[in-house]
Amino acid sequence: MALEDLLELPNTPAMIRATARSCHGFFSMWIQIFKDHPEVKKAILENVCGTAMECYDENFSPKEDFILRA
Question: Distance from first CA to last CA of the chain, Å, rounded?
């Protein structure tokens, strides 16, 4: 699965689920790749065990209060 696959069949629930399930590892990279696709980010977040959904806004981007700064 890749961004190109999702773009071929946008807003297809089966494609969104398949994309989210294929994003094993490199969590932050996948969230960045799908930054313009909140439905995919939501699915990815829901498939990562232990994700604190309250740390994300309505577009499934990290809330400012929860962003770690160096």
Answer: 32
pLDDT per position as a tens digit, 2-42: 667 667 766 677 766 776 676 666 778 888 888 998 988 89
Compute the 3-state secondary structure of the chain and give helix, strand, coil in percent, each to the nearest 5. Answer: 55, 5, 45
Number of H helices, E strands in the chain: 4, 0
Range of the domain at 11: 3-66
Could you give the CA distance from residue 10 to residue 28 in angstroms, rounded to a whole number?
22
Block residue for tokens 């969104």: 16
Q: Which tokens sit at 9?
A: 């069949």
Structural domains of the chain, count: 1
